[in-house]
Amino acid sequence: MGLSIFLLLSVLTGLLLLLFKGHSKTHGHLPSGPRPLPFLGNLLQMDRKGLLKSFQQFQKKYGDVFTVYLGSRPIVMLCGPEAIREALVDQAEAFSGRGTIAVVEPVFQGYGVVFANGERWKALRRFSLATLRDFGMGKRSVEERIQEEAQCMVEELRKSQGGLVDPIFLFHSATANIICSIVFGNRFDYKDPQFLRMLDLFYKSFSLISSFSSQVFELFSNILKHFPGSHREIYKNLQEINTFIGHSVEKHRETLDPSSPRDFIDSFLLRMDKDKTDQNTEFHHKNLIMTLLSLFFAGTETTSTTLRYGFLFLLKYPHITERVQKEIEQVIGSHRQPALEDRTKMPYTEAVICEMQRFADLVPIGVPHVVTKDTVFRGFILPKNTEIYPILSTALHDPRHFEKPDTFNPDHFLDANGALRKNVAFMPFSMGKRICLGEGIARAELFLFFTTILQNFSITSPVAPEDIDFTPKEVGFGRVPPVYKICFLPCTMDSGKRNKTLQGH
């Protein structure tokens, strides 16, 4: 009996190996990597701390380009700025396909500007870029919108009267209102219950997408999708947001004036009407909802999370905060609002903002790509639709380009004369044809929100600087900062007196 079971197991194992061997031949000549097992892929070689930690360890052994099997799916990893740039910029067209993230795939299903491919993606991206530009430079420029929102945020912070504040929803509200003003045509009050509900759903969803359970789901989604888990909560959250977006679209449809589009939704509805006889058009309701969800989510979560991380860094390093505030006083003063034209005269502040983005490392694994055709890359043959992960974290922490990659240090972006310098490894928005749509808006928001807050407030924490911990709540496709409390003390005096007040607070 025992011999029969042994023989049966041997035959089954042999068949699995043959199946797997035959399957791998369809994958061209992929880069080497850890040896996978049938079905399990490289699961047994993975670090318990998650995908990013595993990929970083594999990089040390296999170099900057290697293959990892997530379950039965081979995925080519690109590590370091040179490999990422060589693929996403030098061979931009070939690497311009969009891969999937398993936990959000049931919601997007290849629709909307972020997860679309082929002609759908090209049409939606062209339209989105042009429309965002038009409404960002129209009657009220993006700069004016951000300046107005920054003042609303200052007024809200004054209400705290120097007490402890959890900055999550304040930063969420401010950044969401910028994209809302462009996309929906209006901003929301910071106490609006429906608005706060949407922001809470975004925050929870970003945390769940970045969780360990979502990383496990990425390996075995075909099986795990049939069982309860965080993927179902993400689906429920995003569908509730889609319902909110759908109601807004209907209101726009009822009040649409074709001669005077108010915002992104109006412009898309007009394009839908123009293309209504074209059966192949990509301008239809589903692409509108999914594009709005993409813009709303990306336009809210990334910038607000960078601000949250950024102010935590400043609490840890008060000497950096002091130097930024000194530059603000010298260049802007206290009697006018910060403006984008101030950036060129404020190299230290700009260096601090760049270092905030680098060190926060918000999308460490990068959003997945696929190759759009059979592609030769560094001597390897990547068949069409091979999945690619550009591991942005390996560029942002590359010791060849950042002297102290694991330390928050604005000098990474300053030359010997204190002038701002570019760094080829700095790619927080990714690169190439799939670079973040809202990069320009995000950079403007970070500068104007950051400088306006520090122009009006000094910051302090009940936790001593040496005890402040940066350890994230979650690290997966995103990095979620720890929850913390901060005091915003109104500035009513010069920096010398301000620092004495802070020390006594």
TrEMBL record:
Positions contributing to heme binding: C436
Topology relative to the membrane: Peripheral membrane protein
For this UniProt record, the keywords arranged alphabetically read as follows:
Endoplasmic reticulum, Heme, Iron, Membrane, Metal-binding, Microsome, Monooxygenase, Oxidoreductase, Signal
Signal sequence segment = 1-24
GO MF entries: arachidonate epoxygenase activity; heme binding; iron ion binding; oxidoreductase activity, acting on paired donors, with incorporation or reduction of molecular oxygen, reduced flavin or flavoprotein as one donor, and incorporation of one atom of oxygen
Which top class of enzyme applies to this chain? oxidoreductase
Q: Which cofactor does it need?
A: heme
**PANTHER family in the record, alphabetically?**
CYTOCHROME P450 2B6 (PTHR24300:SF406), CYTOCHROME P450 508A4-RELATED (PTHR24300)
Q: What is this protein called?
A: Cytochrome P450
UniProt lists the gene as: LOC101568688
